[in-house]
Amino acid sequence: MELDNGRDRPLASRHLLGLEGMSGTEITHILDAAEALKEILDRPIKKVPTLRGVTVVNLFFEASTRTRISFELAEKRLSADLVNFSKTGSSVSKGETLLDTARNIEAMRVEVVVIRHQSAGAPGFLAQRLNSVVINAGDGFHEHPTQGLLDLLTLRQKFGELKGLKVAVIGDISHSRVAMSNLYGLKALGAEVMLCGPPTLMPRGVESLGAKVCHNVDQALAWADALNVLRLQLERQHSALLPSLREYHQTFGITRRRLEKAGRVPVILHPGPINRGVEIESAVADGNESVILDQVTNGVAVRMAVLVLLSTPEVALKGE
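RESULT FIELD:
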């Protein structure tokens, strides 16, 4: 394993709040670190002492499976001391504020706070008020930066070079923090991005961020080298934005028949959880073109990299 976090390639911020404004150099630095650390996951003993003595708290105010387990595994692989927090059964249910919760945890000498919250801006709010490093594990409709990074790593492993790559993000763009992190990250690395979905699920003015916009999934299929298929987030929709799930599947669902009609097979990504038979059918999600399980593995490596680079910025690992 080679991980050189030299002073000539620092990250501009001591927190990871989003990929917006991050340079291609910074993102590449994180991806390179993830590639180096991924080797640990294939060892017989999947553990190194890199973060021994560093305490990380996982503050999850929203339900999560992949992200939470991925962060926990990353922390354990690096020998960090971890504390898990969930809203249910905590003092938050008694009326305690987010800031009071975080300050009480920090008073216990926690170095890193990983937070997932339903409100956009919650990680930034904490970063301005705590001495701990803050890592955004998803906030409202804002961003999900580590998901964006693991998607970038998966694409880089598949294609080698991201510059000029054509990536279509399909589905519920308005309610997706994954879409925004993908857009910012892909653009920073020189890829072309198309956002495709129903007009009712497309945020206004998104073209100003440098993305192509379309409302025809077959057009996106004809254009793209890779598709990132988003989950339809019904729990975040507060009005009837679609006639029915069946119609959505017929119009925007990624199916084997639709791919065959397009005459080309793009690489298929999905951030999970998958609504099979809604945004994507099982034959595609489980097909040879799918890299969904590669994304899951890369998620652990990316989160290891972020934890190392932010919590121990002076570290230099050489074949540990």
